[in-house]
Specification:
It is built from three helices and no strands. By secondary structure, it is an all-alpha fold.
Length: 96
């Protein structure tokens, strides 16, 4: 039977709790960008991903607002077109 490696040194080097906390704050959209030890390469990457996600959430909110405004304008234009069509259908000049 093979001898299992001693992982105690590895667990001391990896801050699992910190990684989990960073991921939790990333999943929580209201969470702030995690404070990361500058020597923690994985933590820095997670923090950068968190910032990018927050940027995308902000951009999506702006896109949603713009799409809503475009939809309102399109609906208003359609109502104007319908009014013109009705007005034109009553007009003898437009019957041709």
């Amino acid at each position: 039977m093979a001898k299992k490696p001693d992982l105690s040194d590895l667990t001391k080097k990896i801050d699992i709790g910190g990684i989990v906390d960073n991921i939790k704050s990333m999943v929580n959209p209201g969470g702030d960008t995690p404070d990361v030890d500058p020597n923690d390469a994985l933590g820095i990457k997670i923090a950068q991903i968190s910032v990018k996600i927050q940027d995308l959430v902000s951009a999506q909110a702006e896109h949603t607002k713009s799409l809503s405004e475009i939809n309102k304008l399109l609906n208003a234009a359609f109502k104007d077109l319908e009014a013109l069509r009705k007005q034109c259908s009553d007009c003898e000049v437009c019957d041709s």
